[in-house]
From TrEMBL:
Keyword Cytoplasm on entry: yes
Location(s) in or outside the cell: Cytoplasm
Gene3D superfamilies (UniProt xref): HUPs (3.40.50.620)
Main localization (coarse): cytoplasm
Organism expressing this protein natively: Corynebacterium mustelae
Record SUPFAM superfamilies: Adenine nucleotide alpha hydrolases-like
Family membership noted in the UniProt record: Belongs to the universal stress protein A family.
GO cellular component, one term: cytoplasm
UniProt protein name: Universal stress protein
Keywords: Cytoplasm
Biological classification of the source: Bacteria, Bacillati, Actinomycetota, Actinomycetes, Mycobacteriales
Record carries keyword Ubl conjugation: no
Ranges for domain UspA: 4-143
C-alpha cells in the first residue's frame, strides 16, 4: 500500500456520508495525511431537480453545505484526523468531488456506497460508481448502507 498524503471524502450531512467521513478520518490519522472534506450544493431547487439521480441528499445553497462541512470536520477530529480542510462546490456530487480531488492532487477518494446497488444506480449510475470510473487516484467505497 502506498502512503496517502491527501485524502478527499464527500459529505451531504447524512448519517451514511458521516460513516465515510469516519473511515477517511481514521485513514488520514494513520498516515498523518491531510483530510479534505467536500460538500456539493445546488444553487436552486430547479437545478437540483434536473439531476436524474437521487442517491444523495440534496443540499441547497452554500450555508447548509458549510454547516455540513463544519459538523464533519468536528467529527473527523474526534476520530483522530489532525490536518483537516474543507471545500464546498456548486454542482452535482460527482462534479464537485472530481474538482476537489484534482485541485488537491488527492491520493485517495473515500465515498459511501449509497445508490450503488439500487435500480436507479444500476441504470443511471451512482456517485460511488461514477467517481470510481472518473478518478485518477485510488477510490475507497465504504459500506455505509445495506
Amino acid at each position: 500500500m502506498s502512503d496517502y498524503s491527501t485524502i478527499v471524502v464527500g459529505t451531504d450531512g447524512s448519517k451514511s456520508s458521516m460513516l465515510a467521513v469516519e473511515r477517511a478520518a481514521k485513514i488520514a490519522a494513520a498516515f498523518d495525511a491531510t483530510l479534505v472534506i467536500g460538500c456539493a450544493y445546488y444553487e436552486t431547487k430547479e437545478e437540483a431537480s434536473k439531476t436524474l439521480r437521487q442517491d444523495s441528499v440534496t443540499v441547497l445553497g452554500t450555508d447548509p453545505a458549510q454547516e455540513n462541512l463544519d459538523k464533519a470536520a468536528e467529527f473527523a477530529k474526534t476520530v483522530g484526523a489532525t490536518k483537516i480542510e474543507t471545500a464546498v462546490r456548486s454542482g452535482t456530487p460527482v462534479e464537485a468531488l472530481m474538482e476537489i480531488v484534482n485541485e488537491n492532487k488527492a491520493d485517495l477518494l473515500v465515498v459511501g456506497n449509497r445508490g450503488i446497488n439500487s435500480l436507479t444506480g444500476r441504470l443511471l449510475g451512482s456517485v460511488p460508481a461514477d467517481v470510481a470510473r472518473q478518478s485518477d487516484c485510488d477510490v475507497m467505497i465504504v459500506h455505509t448502507v445495506s
